[in-house]
Amino acid sequence: MKQEEIRERLFELQDIGYKEFNCKLIPGVDPDSVIGVRTPALRNLAKEIFKSGDYREFVEDLPHKYYEEVNLHGMIICFIKDYEEAICKVDKLLPYVDNWATCDLLSFKKAFKGNLNKLENDIKRWIASNETYTVRFGIGVLLEFYLDDAFDSKYLEWVARVESDEYYVKMIKAWYFATALAKQYEATIPYIENHTLEEWVHRKTIQKAKESYRVSDETKEYLNTLK
């Protein structure tokens, strides 16, 4: 499908009330670039387009004009199962990701889950980037895939060493460490006890861990003493 055809479909799904609501959640995004399409409708369209096989022209036609076009692009390529193709497609898209919402919807379970060893080199490359949302995406991949059976304490160090003054990088670092406290407590708690993280991330990690239902009340009380 061509860009124009897809754009027409998106405007058919437009919800002005949702547009006004959504614009408040994505600061920095030009409201004129937002059509106003609810996420379930966008996902259904992405699935339809991917299943048709007629998506390659659209995902090569960058940059997109509208916020939803970028999100739809991301949702489509997340269906790709081939690892190399998925990496190629996400690398082409990431330079055009300019907000947390688009970044956080990128979840490549089909391509990444069975290739975690291979994926390490790409994660290192992403978190070493100078681009805010490329770094955020890389840390998000570590959060999604490497805090359970694939966990290794080296990943904590990778994230701890990421240096950035960008709010959305610092926030994903805090989110990562708060989740790590819930899933890999023994390996993670020294980073909090020793104040290894920058102060803002340290405090935000404790806050988010205390808000988590996966962290015990006893641990939350202890975290209070480490502020």
Automatic annotation (TrEMBL):
PANTHER family: ARMADILLO-TYPE FOLD, DNA ALKYLATION REPAIR PROTEIN
Name the UniProt record assigns to this protein: DNA alkylation repair protein
Gene source species: Mogibacterium pumilum
